[in-house]
Amino acid sequence: MKNAIGIDIGGTGIKGALVNLKKGELVTERLRFDTPDGGKPESVVELVVKLVKQIDAPKNTPIGICFPAPVKNGVTLSAANVSNEWIGLQAGKLFSKALGAEIVMLNDADAAGVAEIKFGAGQDRKGLVLMCTLGTGIGTALFMNGKLIPNTELGHIEIDGVDYETKAAYSAKARDNLSFEQWAKVLSKYFDRLNRLFFPDLIIIGGGVSKEHESFLHLIESDVEIVAARSKNNAGIIGAAYFAAKHLSKD
Ligand code: BGC
């Protein structure tokens, strides 16, 4: 199997493309729709079907979908930045039925991490690697010697009495009008806590803002090596496609 489709559902956008599985690169233009208001299952499924049609890949191309919640056996287990209707939903089955194809689903940060471990900043890294996506929320993925420990939800760690993603996600920087210097202070506190709980060997920062890593990465104070994701905002798409090919292909 040479290519697979990756779809990345987020709190603000739904993105997708066909991915070359050897290189970990997009082979079609990245398509994007705004996430419909409220992020309800019906309207999200409709847009995913539209996206897959537009990608127009050959029949039986594996499809991987990543989602901003923990996902177990195709069931979405929470809904921090989408409609509560997703909680406990058999979302995998819903997508399969609407697309008329078997699909696999996984958490969005896990997908981004899979891409970085396979093709990007985490390649050949031993020990504990923590992927952290800074977007509408904070997503995390943990890898031990390259093996994913799925569905970690470390964006919701409570610090100073609040669910810390509400303070440290990129959306919070924009909402609170924080400069990169101010935001880096908030992030330093977050990574310090994660370090004292997990002692990771490497932290990879992803999400749209990783494109601007030169503006803030050096401002974060941490004892751990922190680097930017290689695939920037496409990591979710690439990781979802790779995960699907691994779990769905028969060759
Ligand atoms: C969700 C995570 C997700 C992250 C990034 C958090 O609010 O709980 O599952 O990975 O946002 O989208």
TrEMBL record:
Ranges in coiled-coil conformation: none
Family annotation (SUPFAM superfamilies): Actin-like ATPase domain
InterPro entries listed in its UniProt record: ATPase_NBD, ROK
Gene3D superfamilies, per database record: 3.30.420.40
PANTHER family per record: POLYPHOSPHATE GLUCOKINASE (PTHR18964:SF146), ROK (REPRESSOR, ORF, KINASE) FAMILY (PTHR18964)
Protein name as catalogued: Unannotated protein
Source species of the chain: freshwater metagenome
